[in-house]
Amino acid sequence: MIQLKRNVLYLYHIQQIQEQVLYRIYFFDPDGLPLELVEDQTNSEIDTWESSTIPSDYQIRGFWSATLRLQDFEGTQKVLKEVLGFKETETESHFKRLTTDSRFGHSIILEKTDQPKISRTGRGTVHHVAFRARDEKELAEMREKVLDMGLNPTEILDRHVFKSVYFQIPGGVLFEMATDGPGYGAAHTSEEVMGEKLFLPPWLEPKREYIEKQLPPITV
């Protein structure tokens, strides 16, 4: 079913994955990025935000999946399984779904394409797909596995609120592996003032005035 509402064209679709029925709305954001809203009854126990103006039944709880359009699956599957802990759970002629037991971001969908597009950055694109590492020790272990596959990961980078490693998978998509901590508490003196001021890492602080002038005002 295709409908147009509030100048947004969207596709309403009901899909069955194994024994699970998913209700999906597929649409493009204002910058042309394709997105989906997925109703997943198995995640109904995830906490909602009590202070939100959106009723709890309609709140977005987290990421469901990311779709990678590739010419070949083999190298990417190897990274997903051996480094990131995914397992193959569904296969058809043109796509595969790999999953973990995580409540958020538990699925990666590999979609085969015979017409790859030249990558670009900027509005309407996804820069990278990020995956979790518990701490710096696990991040270093994951990085070594990537190296053993003959890929070219960055060194462990200090992002102030977490540490991360970037690398391109064989299909060309940029992956990030990032630690949980130290968390955004490291950016503020207390939770009471969190969000009141734009956080910039130390190396961008000298450019604060310029950066803030480029940003649209936010009204809460």
Q: Can you characterise this structure?
A:
The protein is globular. Helix content is 13%, strand content 34%. With 220 residues, it is mainly β. The model has no long low-confidence stretch (mean pLDDT 85). The strands form three sheets. A four-stranded antiparallel sheet has the order 1-2-3-4, with no helix packed on it. A four-stranded mixed sheet has the order 5-8-7-6, covered by helices on one side. Strand 3 (20-28) and strand 4 (34-39) form a beta hairpin. It has a domain at 1-41.
What is the element layout, followed by pairings?
Layout: E1 2-5, E2 8-17, E3 20-28, E4 34-39, E5 65-70, H1 74-82, E6 87-91, E7 95-99, E8 107-112, E9 129-133, H2 136-148, E10 157-158, E11 162-168, E12 174-182, H3 208-214
Parallel strand pairs: 5-8, 9-12
Antiparallel strand pairs: 1-2, 2-3, 3-4, 6-7, 7-8, 10-11, 11-12
Give the gist of this structure.
With 220 residues, the chain is mainly β. It contains 3 helices and 12 strands; from the N terminus they run βββββαββββαβββα. The chain has helices spanning 74-82, 136-148, 208-214, and strands spanning 2-5, 8-17, 20-28, 34-39, 65-70, 87-91, 95-99, 107-112, 129-133, 157-158, 162-168, 174-182.
Arrangement of strands in the largest sheet: 1-2-3-4
Ends: how far apart?
A: 35 Å
Structural class: mainly beta
Q: Report Rg.
A: 20 Å
Spell the H/E element sequence: EEEEEHEEEEHEEEH
Which features would summarize this protein structure in a list?
single chain; 220 residues; mainly beta; four-stranded antiparallel beta sheet; four-stranded mixed beta sheet; 3 helices; globular
